[in-house]
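Subject: for your reference before the review

Hello V.,

The reviewers asked for a structural picture of the protein, and I figured it would be easier to keep everything in one thread rather than splitting it across files. Below is the amino acid sequence we used in the manuscript, unchanged from the supplementary table.
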Amino acid sequence: MYHELRKRGTSARGLKGICWRLVEAQHYVSTAKLTDSANDQLLLERLIEATKSSVPPECEHLNYLLSTPFRYGSPYPHGSRFCKAGLTEGVFYAAESADTAAAEITFHRLLFFAESPATPWPGNPGEYTAFAAEFAAARTIDLTRPPLNADRALWTHPTDYVACQALAAAARSAAIDVVRYQSVRDPSHRASVALLTCRVFTKPNVVSRQTWRIHLDTAGARAFCEAPKHTLAFGRDTFATDPRIAGMTWIR
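And here is what came back from the structure prediction:
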């Protein structure tokens, strides 16, 4: 793949901006339920932290929201679009808009229920934190622009990530730090970024936050942003290009 990139005249370009990511806002709430005091909760949090892999030295100065995707040195049980299963380097997946990030996490939330058809829909919306990070990279590749967009079908396949994983390995070999690509899950197909190293973050802390809630039911999913007030609706067919969602048991 690396030689193919060179043969096709693919050139690395600079890229900078902010990117958005959503994470579950359940972490401290969950440990609070298991403890009787603030001191007990702090002790439990420290014990949990001690069981995790260490943060790479180049990421130690970063807020944990930025460093976490890079810290896990144990094998990944399943691959993702730009990350192979097994012992591999981490990838920080993010999007150029909070809406795209919300669509991505909504898809993965639905995927859990698609693969667990006997699990009832949750009674309450799940709460998530959206956060923005600032980054800049001198060497990036853009799968939405020529010549690489000629292989759009490979980069946007809903379930087969082999080509994307090979591309990410080639990008690392070529000292490329960021891959810009079309979001497969966003109905508007806006851009996402895969940050291959934490060295591209230009600030150690997040630069903006939002609170989102995601509600799932027999009709599909709705994502609500608290401020600014904003709602996204995802019907049953929104993610149906993925066969796992197409076969979803919606009535449960």
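For the response letter, the relevant points are probably these. The chain has eight helices and eight strands. The mean pLDDT is 89.

Happy to draft the paragraph if you're swamped.

O.
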